[in-house]
Amino acid sequence: MKKRLTAAVLACSLIGLPSAWAALPNGASAPEFKTQAAQGGNTFQFDLRDALSKGPLVLYFFPAAFTKGCTIEAHDFAEAVPAYEKLGARVVGISADSIDVLKPFSVSECQSKFPVAADADGKIMRAYDAVHERNAERSQRISYVITPDAKVIYSYADSDPDKHVANTLEALRAWRAQHPAKD
User: Fold this and answer.
1) Contacts of 114 (CB under 8 A, 6+ apart)
2) Which of helix, strand or coil describes residue 89?
3) By the 8 A CB rule, do 61 and 95 touch?
4) Which sign, positive or negative, has the C-alpha torsion 86, 60, 62, 13?
C-alpha cells in the first residue's frame, strides 16, 4: 500500500497535478483569516478578504523561514512577481514563524516584493489542511491559487520548491484566459 501511495504522489508531481497532501479541493471556499504580515520589513494586518478584493491570490505555505528550500522558494516567487502582476494576481507566503522572524525574511529572501504572514498558532495552516505530516508545529509546502470570489482553483503540494511558481502561474494563466481583466 505504501509503495502505491508513494507512486501516486510521484506521478501527480511529475504530471503537474496536486499531490495527495493538498487537502482543499478545487472549488472549495478559501477559509478567511486575518493575521500579522511583513513586507519590506514593515508589519501590517493581512486580511484575505481585502487581498481578494484586488484580484486572485497565490497563497503559499512554507515550513520555516531561512531554511534552504524556503529561501529558494521565496527567491523564485520574488523573481516571478512581475508575471503574477501581469495576470492581476498577488502572492503571499505564510508560515508558523513569528512576525519577528518574518520581518527580515520579507526583506532578504522575499526581496520586499510580496508579504509573508505569521501563523504562529497554526490556525491558518489547519484551516487550509497544510499541517506538516512529520512536524505539526510547521506547515508543509503547499501553494493555492484563490480567485476573487474566494474559491480555490488550484493546489499543489510538494516538498521540492522548484515547481510551485511555474504551476501556480500556469493555473492563473488558464483562469485569466476565461476571466479577462477589466480595464
Assistant:
1) 39, 77, 78, 81, 90, 91, 92, 93
2) coil
3) yes
4) negative
Kindly calculate the radius of gyration of the chain based on its CA atoms and give it in whole angstroms: 15
Q: Please report where in the chains the cell 516571478 appears, as a residue.
A: 80
pLDDT confidence of residue 23: 67
Give per-residue pLDDT as tens, 48-71: 999 999 999 999 999 999 999 999
The answer to whether the beta carbons of residues 150 and 29 sit under 8 Å apart is yes
Full DSSP string of 102-135: HHHHHHHTSTTSS-EEE-TTSHHHHHTT-B-SS-
Distance, CA of 156 to chain centre: 9
3-state SS class at 168: helix
Nearest C-alpha neighbor of 43 from the set 124, 108, 118? 118
Q: How many CB atoms lie within 10 A of CB 63?
A: 21
